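Notes from the pairing session

We agreed to fold both candidates in a single pass and log them together. This is the raw record for the first candidate, unedited. Please don't reformat it; downstream parsing expects exactly this layout.

Candidate A
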Amino acid sequence: MHTIRLHIEGEQALYNAFDPEGELLADDVKAYILDRMRERSPGEGVELELVTPGPIDQARAQRAFQRWVEEEEQLVRAERRRNMLQQLWMFGVGVLFVVVSLMLEAKVGDVWFTILSTIGAFSLWEASSIWIVQNPKLRLHKRVIDKLKHQFRLRFVSAE
């Protein structure tokens, strides 16, 4: 079990100060947890140990963590969808411009041929960049969120 120890001064340090409901985790808490998740072995479960000097509303904290995981899951799904559409769009535009430049090579001057083929190549390059760079990062983030969703345990420890 991979244990992430999180020391907080008081219960309010755990939550986002701008949230009117008071159940959104603070950004630095989320970033710290995600950063520490990278240190674990792939098959390990995750336990978050909240160390506080005083009492904490455990049900509220549990709800905040569940809400965060659900929101992250939705963000990952939306980002994957956006990446797929953007990748298909850039690939389609790239192929179109390359085909048009090849069809018009003899009919237009060298400058127009170069402009059309460069736009096509650039679009294809951007589509491949999404596939090679962005999608693997997103898959890794999805695995971390899935681990938090299915194998996550929250434990409360008093600092006293």
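Candidate B (folded immediately after A)
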Amino acid sequence: MDRRVSFILKELGLWKIFVLVMVLRSPFDFLNACLGANMLERFLRIAELKEKSDLLPAFLTFLLFTVLLFGYNATIWSTISIKADMLLHERLRNKLLKTMLEMEQQEVEQYSEGDWITRINADVDRTADYLTAPLNFMHALIASVNLLLSTAVLAFLNAALLAAALAVMLPFFFLSTVVIIRKVPQYKKNAQEAQASYSDRLRAITEAGSAICVFDGEDIVMKKVEEASLRIMNENIRAHRLSAWSSLFIVFSGNLGYLLLLLMGNSMMGNGIRDFAELTKITQYRGRMMMSVMCVNDSVNRMKTNLPGALRVEEILRMSGKSVPAGEQQQNHAV
């Protein structure tokens, strides 16, 4: 998590509840991976040995664990995660409005009306999305926990296949998440600034439309609106194009690694790998690793997309006298 986003959580008093949500939700992906891999291995063994009497007990056992696992995740989501997300939106908007009201008029006028509207609405949404929306920070953390634990399990099952999987995965992951998307935050920041300019131009049209017509300024104003609109579109297209290239490399890495795993696993059958059921179990863990890599990759992309909005919110919160520690505020009042 970016330190400036953590500053926002601490300012809102939501740091502890957010940490609690992350701790409670982090094991889900790994437990789901273990459940799926062992279930598939068990069913393949039953089919190979033709033990029909074991099929129903195995099915009921895995059904029970599946219901318990997803019931646990749904409970955490409905009781804590949604509450934290609602509190984040509510407190952040109230904090921004309170900060704006406490500022001197000269400080408020440093930003245009469109800029304030963008910060209180779109930027607040982007800050919340950075933390709790699908494929952002929280999902990146859950996927990272699954990636580390699944890697440990795969190392125990077959270190050679793990090494082959990592050899294909890591270079593409570095290329995708570090090299390709490094300019995405700047493009998104430019789009947000253009959005504020666009709002200002529209406000001028609605509030001073008659004056603009009297002085024949329609062409000038509409030209400015068009320029701002095109800038928003172009900056977003640049960011989306980089994100698309990033996803392409990750998908290519996943398919290449899967083919390599099957080829190596077939040659190791009976020597390092007991049977097809065990190879399938290994491929399941490797598949979950790849899903986690893709999740982390997409989450990093979207976190970088949403970070400019969070930084614009943090800029305003830094102006608030509330950001001064309580002890220092008491000393200031005493003086």
